[in-house]
Write a structure and sequence with these properties.
The chain is an alpha/beta fold. The chain folds into 2 domains: about 230 residues, Glycogen Phosphorylase B (Rossmann fold, 3-Layer(aba) Sandwich); about 160 residues, Glycogen Phosphorylase B (Rossmann fold). The chain is about 45% helix and about 15% strand. The chain has a 7-stranded parallel β-sheet, sandwiched between helices. Helix 2 links the parallel strand 2 and strand 3. Helix 10 packs across helix 14.
């Protein structure tokens, strides 16, 4: 039945499952499939997130269809300048509008005839007019974060004046684009209640169904024999908030932290790791680059360090770590959207001084830190189960199927 036939559009291939965005998209795709829906995935194979074609052939054999379109989404100086001067739309939207992708979208709409189309990036909203031409389709947008909020916060962290002015301008144009897009969809799936409130305050009357990332694994019981009390961080380093967070932590926190606790070690990994990190030489710090298995990377490490200052949405890697019984030391912004209480489910630190104090406290009070970790795992088990989240999402969408 077409009503339960969904076409999911992504602005990158959700693979490998080593960063939060890919994991969140994959969970949604799998959630619809597990609920009995026919799922067709049409993904951009972008120049910034490439996957070997031999690997592509083996991805998602269980879907009704899976196709990719090559898209060059590199940031180029001349088009960026032209966009800044002559366009009201953010450069991101221009970079993700591709005529070959639009053509393939038309073909899939005609052959698959979905009852629902779901987009996994706000910058794919430029394709909505073409989808509406295909007939009576419920259009859904997944909000992984409030995009303009990410860029507003990022601008405040940038010291270079011209760069800060550009990012502020970009954030303003993203906000206009984003708030208009919210009004154009039938259903929005914000990933947190905080994000849902922002959407509603903008004046959008679109139906909102809060759909956090769902964890489909049993809570982990920590073992002192298998986990070392060392710090780690993992995340895609081509996402600017992650890179800025690492810059800040390594420059502003680590030197004093290492002096205070010289035996403490810190490991970080992520996709598209910049050379400045790969070549870093700091005592006690190890950059692992892109790791082939994220689960193996975190398995023997106890403390997740989250120094994010400009993020939005929800941090999938934090939920995963909480489910595995890790001790979380995070900024309040890093924990945004997760119903966790500092001192109960995680240890909060918002500046260099408190990161040092928090780390020392965790290392010196391991029993109390383990209790916080267990309570975090319990929270994930109670509130972030994948099956319950998908039931709520599907119920919200079905109200619009005619």
């Amino acid at each position: 039945m077409a009503a339960h036939r969904i076409l999911i559009l992504t602005n990158r291939i959700p693979y490998p499952l080593t960063d939060g965005g890919n994991m969140a998209m994959h969970a949604m795709i799998q959630g619809y499939h597990n609920a009995g829906w026919e799922v067709y995935l049409l993904a951009m194979h972008t120049s910034r997130h490439t996957v070997e074609y031999r690997v592509l052939k083996g991805l998602y054999p269980w879907l009704a269809g899976f196709e990719t379109v090559d898209v060059d989404n590199r940031i180029k100086p001349v088009p960026t300048l032209v966009n800044l001067i002559f366009s009201k739309h953010p450069n991101h939207a221009a970079r993700f509008f591709n005529h070959s992708f639009r053509k393939k979208l038309d073909e899939v709409l005609q052959s698959f005839r979905p009852g629902v189309v779901q987009m996994e990036s706000i910058f794919l909203a430029t394709y909505l007019p073409f989808i509406r031409q295909a007939g009576n389709i419920v259009n859904v947008m997944r909000l992984h974060n409030i995009e303009y909020q990410v860029w507003e916060r990022l601008a405040e962290q940038v010291r270079n004046v011209p760069k800060r002015l550009y990012i502020r301008n970009l954030a303003k144009r993203i906000r206009i684009f984003e708030e208009q897009a919210w009004k154009d969809f039938d259903v929005l799936l914000p990933i947190t209640g905080v994000d849902a409130a922002i959407v509603r305050e903008s004046g959008a009357n679109t139906e909102l169904v809060v759909a956090p990332f769902g964890i489909d694994i049993a809570p982990h019981k920590e073992s002192e024999d298998s986990e070392e009390w060392v710090g780690y961080h993992i995340g895609a380093m081509d996402w600017l908030p992650n890179a800025e967070a690492m810059n800040w932590f390594l420059q502003e926190v680590w030197p004093e932290l290492h002096e205070a606790v010289p035996q403490f070690r810190f490991y970080f990994a992520g996709r598209n790791m910049p050379a400045r990190f790969r070549n870093i030489s700091l005592p006690g710090v190890t950059c692992m680059g892109e790791v082939p298995d994220a689960h193996a990377f975190i398995a023997d490490k106890k403390i997740l360090i989250v120094p994010l200052m400009s993020a939005g949405g929800i941090r999938v890697k934090i939920l995963e770590a909480m489910a595995k019984g890790k001790v979380i030391i995070s900024t309040s912004i890093g924990m945004q959207g997760i119903n966790a209480v500092p001192g109960i489910h995680y240890v909060e630190a918002n500046d260099a001084k408190t990161f040092i104090i928090a780390t020392k406290w965790v290392l010196e009070h391991r029993d109390e830190a383990c209790k916080i970790a267990r309570q975090g795992a319990d929270l994930v088990a109670q509130e972030y189960r994948q099956e319950a989240i998908m039931q709520k999402v599907i119920h919200g969408i079905e109200r619009h199927i005619r």
